[in-house]
Amino acid sequence: MTSFVLVPGAWKGSWAFEAVIPLLERAGHTVHALTLTGLRPDDDNATVAGANLDTHADDVLRHVDRHGITDATLVGHSYAGMVIAAAADRADGRVSRLVHLDAYVPRDGDSCWSSTNDHFREVFVTGAAATGYAVRPPEGGDPRRRPHPLASFLQTIRLTGAFARVPRRDFVYCSGWEDRTPFAELRTRLRTDPDWQVHDIPTGHNAMHEAPEAVAAILLGEPTAGVETPGQPARR
Question: Mind spelling out the 3-state secondary structure of 94-133?
């Protein structure tokens, strides 16, 4: 039985995985879906303003501690790729697998700001103009989205090397929004890295809602139509 810890991307809460959770639970696994600090409906302005990448990594680690998880599979969507990398680096071996679901895969000293593209930098700047500390969600999309702490996009990550020793690491590339995706170059880099398994899925960024069965199949290690796992060198 696997303990999945699902971490949503910017502006979202645990509800982002609502279509995937029952598929994993039906397969007999334990699923924990998180809402990060500053994204909870009752968080006040001071909480949002004070939340950064360290805060969000600590959210994950506290949850792992509270539930006694010793072999977590951390799944991070989009911005949360930064979060699960930081958490795994500090987890003292309690993470056995990382799944970056159309998500950033940072190196030491990276930030979400430095890793993204000009389109999303503009989204961050424009979205934070009203408060200076919270980035409002882009127009359209799920009405449950909330303003996201700006500091979490700007803070650089500090990695000791433990992140790179997680036994299994997967990257899922969503190919259906190539006009705006910040992950195309990352996909190219990881496809040549034998420590990563790369999957291509023909959806937009919110694959969890567009193709929950395909996302669940990747998490469960099952083959599924429409998902490509390009040939790579053998894993070390």
Answer: CEEEEEEECCCCCCCCCCHHHHCCHHHHHHHHHHCCCCCC
Q: Where are the beta strands (DSSP E) in 69-209?
A: 72-77, 95-101, 134-135, 148-149, 168-174, 197-201
**Tokens standing for residue 33:** 């879906």
Residue 3: strand, helix, or coil = strand
Say which CATH superfamily domain 3-220 falls into. Answer: Alpha/Beta hydrolase fold, catalytic domain (3.40.50.1820)
Walk along the chain (236 residues) and give the pLDDT tens digit of each residue. 999 999 999 999 999 999 999 999 999 999 999 999 999 999 999 999 999 999 999 999 999 999 999 999 999 999 999 999 999 999 999 999 999 999 999 999 999 999 999 999 999 999 999 999 999 999 998 999 999 999 999 999 999 999 999 999 999 999 999 999 999 999 999 999 999 999 999 999 999 999 999 999 999 998 765 676 654 443 33
> Largest Cα–Cα distance in the chain?
49
Number of Cβ atoms within 10 Å of the Cβ of 28: 9
What type of residue is 22? P
Element (H, E) at 31: strand 30-33
Q: Could you tell me the residue ranges of all domains in the chain? A: 3-220
Determine the Cα angle at 82 with ends 118 and 103, to 5°.
65
By residue count, the chain amounts to 236
